[in-house]
Amino acid sequence: MKQNIMEIDSLKKYYGKSDNQTKALDGISFQIMHGEFLGIMGSSGSGKSTLLNCIATVTKPSSGKIMLQGTDVTNLKGKELSDYRGNRIGYLFQNFELLDNLTGRENIMLPLSLHKISEKESNKRLEQLVAYLDIRDVVNKFPSQMSGGQKQRVAAARSLILNPEIILADEPTGALDSKNAKLLMNKLSGLNEQEQSTILMVTHDSNAASYCNRILFIQDGTIFHELRKNAPIESRQEFYERILQLMAQLGGGSANVL
Q: What is the number of structural domains in the chain?
């Protein structure tokens, strides 16, 4: 039986004063299990990005708890906060966030140098990720010399290099064409299935969401629906069709099939 790795408990994030308040998150609660690939879907302004930013400690919630294996990350400060951001979570951004003046290799290795990982261990981890993500031909190039798909795979390597307990992916296919989106999602799915990597992905893309084991739908800062993939009997295509059906009922959908 899989263990709970993260628990979100009654999380709230309000903006503004009481007479003119926006409730970005309005008491969200759920658990993430070790080795789970969990998707968060919702329309623009639903609260999904605020949720991810709270988990990443970019945004401080108004109330509630975010527990990572017994530690409330909302209370972390100083060295413990730095360790959480650097070691315990990996963040994959929509727009890559690579440093233009560093090569792909230097971008990937940057977190290792900041956390004083030995050169031997660093090179071992780099080699494994370069091979798995198929980026050997671009590690010595600068971001300006890479395609969007290559940039995102280099960014994925950087988010994975410290072996984080959980990977946070914020619209990871948002800046990619369908071919590169499929390639990236196959790689993330492979990490989840083969390495038991725990992934929390915010997406508006039904195609990307179909790679998840479970999807939570957010509206007005609350969870209003959940879909689970019926593994192993349900194919990704069948799960995708169920996602599309639900999105159509909600008034939105996706016409692009990976």
A: 1
